[in-house]
Amino acid sequence: MQKRGREEERERSEAKTGHRLVGARSGSEMKVMVAVKRVVDYAVKIRVKPDKSGVETSNVKMSMNPFCEIALEEALRIREAGTAAEVVAVSVGPAQCVDTLRTALAMGADRAIHVDAGAAPVLPLSVAKILKALVQVEQPGLLILGKQAIDDDCNQTGQMIAGLLRWPQGTFASKVVLDKEKQVATVEREVDGGIETLSLDLPAVITTDLRLNQPRYATLPNIMKAKSKVIKKVTPAELNVELKPDLEVVQVAEPPKRKAGVIVSSVDELIHKLKNEARIL
Ligand code: AMP
């Protein structure tokens, strides 16, 4: 989108919300918003519910989505480098998202917002609409998301929110450099056969790839401090977002069980089987 177009969009948003988009204009005042999703922990063996309506989440360890940890780490590094003044973590979902937000606060986020959307899963387009409404209130200069949530593997929310906001997007970022003076983000992304480098005018949306950084662990004192921090709670209705399911999950099934392996007694037997049974030689 051309710079003039974004300015017009910003002016429209300012007129609508009564807020000035300071984050988008001044590096030292810039706010970074990070979307963090609560998902089944990456180390848990996934079980499908008996009625095949989804994945079992009761009595299962839940954690912050690993790509969201990377997103938060990047935001913290940007603030620590003096390019941003504040990091705000946002999570959309049931009451337990507060735990994920406490982890974000313990890692170093300044503030946290829980959008209480109840127990039903919230699909990427709805999350994107909610994030758009929050962006209009909070006015960050940068919105960072994980490239995908490991529970639904959608890889959609970042692209959708960039489209809704008409902000430039740097997806699958493996390196991010911010120029505070020029208000530009340079994003490197790994593509087939090389590295693509993009230059994005701020405000912008960035989604994080695995190699962007190594997220920090929350220290015990910070975990204790995070327990007493206030987490702002809003509902989708308060943000004027109607949660409409735009797609239906018909069925979730486990992959077919693999057949047991065969132990061969010699290399010759292995080659014979690969040639005559598997037919891959
Ligand atoms: P997805 O498009 O579902 O694969 O998710 C991509 C990214 O969008 C995640 O890594 C999060 O940064 C963000 N996101 C998706 N769903 C939520 C949610 N319910 N709450 C907060 N962030 C979310």
UniProtKB/TrEMBL annotation:
Keyword Mitochondrion in record: yes
GO function term, MF aspect, one: electron transfer activity
A Gene Ontology term for the protein's cellular component: mitochondrion
Keywords, comma-separated and alphabetical: Electron transport, Mitochondrion, Transport
Broad class of the protein's primary localization: mitochondrion
Biological processes annotated in GO: fatty acid beta-oxidation using acyl-CoA dehydrogenase
Family to which the UniProt record says this protein belongs: Belongs to the ETF beta-subunit/FixA family.
Domain Electron transfer flavoprotein alpha/beta-subunit N-terminal: 52-243
Residue ranges with Basic and acidic residues bias: 1-17
Protein name per UniProt: Electron transfer flavoprotein subunit beta
InterPro entries given in the database record: ET-Flavoprotein_bsu_CS (IPR000049), ETF_a/b_N (IPR014730), ETF_b (IPR012255), ETF_beta_N (IPR033948), Rossmann-like_a/b/a_fold (IPR014729)
Biological role stated in the UniProt entry: The electron transfer flavoprotein serves as a specific electron acceptor for several dehydrogenases, including five acyl-CoA dehydrogenases, glutaryl-CoA and sarcosine dehydrogenase. It transfers the electrons to the main mitochondrial respiratory chain via ETF-ubiquinone oxidoreductase (ETF dehydrogenase).
Keyword Mitochondrion among UniProt keywords: yes
Region (Disordered): 1-21
